Amino acid sequence: YYGYLTIVKPWLIFVNTQTLTSEQRLFYEENGFLLIKNLVSEEDIDRFRREFERICRQEIKVPGLVVMRDVAIAKSEFVPDQKAVSKLQDFQEDPELFRYCSLPEILKYVECFIGPNIMAMHTMLINKPPDAGKKTSRHPMHQDLHYFPFRPADRIVCAWTAMEKVSRQNGCLVVLPGSHKGTLQEHDYPEWEGGVNKMYHGVRGYDPQHPRVHLEMEKGDTVFFHPLLIHGSGMNQTQGFRKAISCHYASGDCYYIDVKGTTQENIEKEVKEIAARKYAVGDEITLKDTWAVRGRLVQGARISM
Question: What cofactor does this protein call for (predicted)?
């Protein structure tokens, strides 16, 4: 023990270790994820669901919110309800949904991984639809760090909470344990016959023989995982929707990097093109700019983010 920090291995430092047991710390260190059962209350999850449905019915407009639709459904017809929506992204301006990012039961675990200065950087409510026969409800295996122009990776963590029972049948998360110990790999769109949803990049050349774990979860269960962990999800083979809510957190003393000349250049190019269409901004915008405006301080101090 070194005061407030526990150094387990040189590449991973746990902070405020009173919340985590030594077994939990070791499990995260070795596997890159940690599942906490029954963490978020049923009452909170039901409130998030009702807010999601209000947004889908277009009863409220949320500034900056990105509404994504499954390519197979969006091409057939537009239905202004939750059946067409596959994901809400960047809900930081919706007070009800953003409550998730500040829940004390979530933050006490986040603090263990990234320290007391906590920024909520990326928010999502995923509504995986029943597959329309094209397998487009799948999410390719990827590393979240591919999308982030900030470092260090060990000061970033995702909290992902099941809003209902999540199983292999309705497309639970699939993780490659221990893959977080590697480096950021090259990503691009997979060549899938039925098409692939916008921004769903996948790792090129990961080992398909690597052991994998299917994270089946109950309503309120929450998994925390490292941004280098290779993960994805299968298609939803049921008739219902599979909902989850998540937030990526970064330490307030993380720093931005220039992704030019790196494997992240392709995602910066795509993000700049989307920003240019949506907000009529020039080519001078960077990937860093798009993240800096989304980040929100939820605990402690915003130092360099």
Answer: L-ascorbate; Fe cation; ATP
- pLDDT higher than 80, residue 268: yes
Instruction: Give me the pLDDT at residue 279, please.
Output: 66
Q: Judge contact between 184 and 265, C-beta under 8 A.
A: no
Q: Compute CA distances 216 → 37, 162, 167, 175, 250, whole Å.
A: 11, 9, 5, 11, 26
Which pLDDT band, with edges at 50, 70 and 90, does 8 fall under?
very low
d(CA 77, CA 84): 9
- Was domain 22-299 assigned CATH 3.40.50.1820? no
Three-class SS state of 106: helix
Alpha-carbon dihedral of residues 262, 12, 248, 260, nearest 10 degrees? -10
| H helix or E strand, kind and range, residue 68 | strand 66-69
What pLDDT digit, counting tens, does each position of 54-94 carry? 888 888 999 989 888 765 654 333 345 545 688 899 999 99
pLDDT at residue 273 in the model: 79
Question: Does residue 152 have a cis bond before it (omega within 30 degrees)?
Answer: yes
Cα 195 to the center of its chain, rounded Å: 22
Q: How far apart are CA 133 and CA 70, in angstroms?
A: 12
pTM assigned to the model: 0.88
According to DSSP, the residues that pair with 125 across neighbouring strands are 88, 245
- Rounded CA separation 287/271 (Å): 7
